[in-house]
Each structure stands twice: as structure tokens, then as C-alpha cells.
Specification:
seven-stranded mixed sheet, alpha/beta, 6 helices
Amino acid sequence: MNFSGIILAGGKSSRMKTDKSKLLLGGRILLEIQIEKLENLGCDDIIVSGKNFHSANALTPPGSDSLADPHQSPYVSQVSDLIPDLGPMGGLYSCFLKCKHSCALVMSVDIPLLSEDTLNMLLAAHLDNNPDATVLTYNGHPEPLIGVYNTSHADLCKELIDNKKLAIRALLERLDCQYYDFHGNPYELLNCNTPEDYEQILHIFPNEK
């Protein structure tokens, strides 16, 4: 089954003090790493939420003067938030409207250690049962920005936005949602939110390859 991919990369990176999507890891930027995972899984419709890498050089690593378009792939597009400053809910709303397929594998740009195997198992769990959403959980805690969502729920996202219910959990409460229990290496779920997080991930990364 074909699926879309959504990379949420529109955050303000306020704690990192620099654009997280352009942080380098193993010689590649985080956004490129996430795009490559989706391509390796066979995704032919990859949407980067909140980054215009044609006009804003979002794929240019720090210190570089040239655009680092990962593969110049025809499968990658950028979607700006139709309603700015709404966080992930605004990103999902805008991207669902543009997805070519009935479901989308969703992940944020700042979890670079998340493995292709985990994403593949999450996708398989969703396709087996076809709920509205399949969300990864770890130790009983949902990770709503690591999941597979049916893309027909843009109208519901807009309803929640209009009612100022911007937490993704408000969306999950309205959906037929199943949860996928993650039993892998917890390092996969590390978020790169602060400079200290980034240093930890840099230290772990060589051992994860």
C-alpha cells in the first residue's frame, strides 16, 4: 500500500537557539536523515511541514553557502502552515490537505535516531487494522508525533483549531486510535530540543549506525 510521509519541521527551535532541521549528524542534516528513512521505506510522497527549502535554504547546513537539497527528489515537497504558529496541529492540518495517499507516516525532524525498522513496524501495524491512527507508545506514554494517521481528517483538525484545541491528544480523543508499544532501544526516541540533547545524540550516534 502506498503511503505519504510527513516530517514536522516547522518548530521555532527556541530552546536550541538554531534551526534544528539543519543540525549536522554524521555529516548530514537532520532533515535529510528523516527524508532518507521515508525514501528507504518506499514513500513516494514526502511532505516537509514548515520548511521552504527552495526559497529559505532550509536544507543548507550551517556554514555552507550552497543549497544541500538531499537528493533533489521529485518525491519531496514543502508545505507551509496555512495558519501559522499553531504547532503540530497546524502542520498536520496543512499537510493532510496535500497528501496524495490515504494514510501518512508522521514524525518530527528532531528524533534522528528513530530507526527505519521501528517506522516500518509502526506502518505495518496500522495497515493490518486500518484504524484512524496508530501512535507509538513507550512505557505507557503516547508519542503522538510518531505515528500513522489517515489523511482524511483535515476537517477535524480545522474544527479543533477553530475551537483552540491545539494539543494532538485532542485529535486522538476524536479518532479510532490504536497504540503500538515500542520495545526497542529508548535512545531511538531521544528528542533534539536543546544543545545538551544534541550533544547526547552526537555521542550516541556512532554506536547506532
